[in-house]
Amino acid sequence: MTHQIAVIEGDGIGQEVIPAAIEVLESLDLDLEFVDGEAGDAVKADTGEALPQETYDLAADADATLFGAAGETAADVILPLRDAVDSFVNIRPAKAYPGVDAVRPETDLVFLRENTEGVYSGHEDDLSDDLSTLTRVVTTSASEKLAAFACDYVEDSDDHDGFSVVHKANVMRKTDGRFRDGVVGVADERGVETDEVLMDAFATHVCLDPEQFDVVVCPNLAGDVLSDLAAGLVGGLGLLPSANIGDDNALFEPVHGTAPDIAGEGIANPTATILSAAMLLDHLGYSEESQRVETAVESVLAEGPRTGDLGGNADTDEMTAAIVDRL
Amino acid sequence: MTHQIAVIEGDGIGQEVIPAAIEVLESLDLDLEFVDGEAGDAVKADTGEALPQETYDLAADADATLFGAAGETAADVILPLRDAVDSFVNIRPAKAYPGVDAVRPETDLVFLRENTEGVYSGHEDDLSDDLSTLTRVVTTSASEKLAAFACDYVEDSDDHDGFSVVHKANVMRKTDGRFRDGVVGVADERGVETDEVLMDAFATHVCLDPEQFDVVVCPNLAGDVLSDLAAGLVGGLGLLPSANIGDDNALFEPVHGTAPDIAGEGIANPTATILSAAMLLDHLGYSEESQRVETAVESVLAEGPRTGDLGGNADTDEMTAAIVDRL
Ligand SMILES: CC(C)[C@H](C(=O)O)[C@@H](O)C(=O)O
Ligand SMILES: CC(C)[C@H](C(=O)O)[C@@H](O)C(=O)O
């Protein structure tokens, strides 16, 4: 069966790292069909829309989407795209790799971020000249759906025993209280172990001792900020892939942005996008190939050639070719 | 003129670190009068209230308040106490000290956290069996007041040239947009330099290179989480003081909690509370004495005796006595 993959490069280094990941995918000789779509600042400048309806539809209809990055229009592209694929969870692994300078080389975390609500609900109002409000939304149904996914995630793997639930229910008593109760309730029923950590305490403790955490289940904004914190601990955003998973569809993207300072030079680190492609493979059932890509990436990170952000002097093509070589 | 200081030990190690800080303050022979108030888990167990009205009034009427920590009831104590002193800004320095093991020894930051609104507004509703909402509130007036304080703060000091404004206005467009516009608007008028950083990007970059930041102005929850992150970078919560400043009043507290694992043993690190007392002195106009306390603390951190959390084997009394000795 042919899998149709929507490919959206977007802006900046998106146009360099996505082709690198496609090169890796193509070298595996699988039954994948790639269909290009446009989104981002450049498209907006041309057409007035950062995410044209046809790109939205392309992502909604494809078996999976690989997205690069968007500039100023990032939120106008990525939030609707997450909606296009009906994503309820954003998986963000943050792992330090041998060969990469990391503040905390012991870091090996997976964030499971709620992907539909919280402060991302989109309900804001200007109530007066002085006052604006945002309605933060938390539902038991979304919390339980995330929890069920988290339980499957730890049960399907030999590496994980349970998960941490991060929240700020001491202040957001009803909303994060509902989140916590929903998540912990499902885990208890399923017999999956959990512990609770306040969002602020997590920020301290993950710096002091990242090994005390493993799988981390969070509300939307907490997942955004704390996974970016973990990116800092493992040596930067150039390494972190992510998967936005829906029931019948999914979207894969590097956690980094468009890197305008180096865009166009062909020197961007393709790791995060190639690892996102590995997550895509796993999602489509190609788990053996996914593992091969990850292993090849790890070996190139450890031995080179590496891009400049990793202290090497390879360009994107050379690093990508080395990864393809080791597949 | 006698300054009246409300002293609220609270629970756990609050009952050990507050007496340590009072010992330091008393050794300076200033015209300070200390009046004790009760708050926290133990008081709640006794009286049903974590913060009795008379303690609230004591803090509201005193020239300044020194607070230790509260356990389960932390939010029920600290949020109303911030209100009692009409605090609009929470000052949280996060500085790595020679002699203390730090993930990032270059860290030297000051967070100026908005202290009244954001998700701390307290408006939450259960709208159905499935759905709760929280109304996040941002006003131009609070944002501008914080900004004016931040401008004074950098202008009054030789160490700071401007400040960073942290927000998530790409998602919270109206509320954090209002915050950003209010803060940047005042700074522009005052000729104070600012740069803007998204909250998630700040979390990454402060780990990778804390020296690129100095004074950091944030909404309430961002300040909570990012200052705790900085605590992780400088070696833990045992070091971080804070000041909740109002127009005519103020409240000083260590950033750490009650540390139930070591409470009652007399081995808690008094640094955060003694540095909070130094901030209190500065606030009351005793800036020379404040500086002396800070210098004495720094010298003891560097040379010992140090408490167990810092790798030493001194108890709270020994470390405090050493600080008093060096005043
Ligand atoms: C661009 C922005 C809207 C987005 C988010 O906040 O989710 C980004 O930070 C991310 O984490 O993918
Ligand atoms: C205890 C809690 C309500 C409080 C906060 O969130 O402000 C604490 O984390 C702090 O930072 O002082």
From TrEMBL, chains A, B:
Keyword Lyase: no
Signal sequence extent: none
Any GO MF annotation of the entry: oxidoreductase activity
SMART domains tied to this protein: Iso_dh (SM01329)
Coiled-coil regions listed in the entry: none
Domain Isopropylmalate dehydrogenase-like: 4-323
UniProt keywords, alphabetically: Oxidoreductase
InterPro entries reported in the protein's UniProt record: IsoPropMal-DH-like_dom
Pfam families: Iso_dh
Similarity section: Belongs to the isocitrate and isopropylmalate dehydrogenases family.
Name by which UniProt lists this protein: Isocitrate/isopropylmalate family dehydrogenase
Lineage: Archaea, Methanobacteriati, Methanobacteriota, Stenosarchaea group, Halobacteria
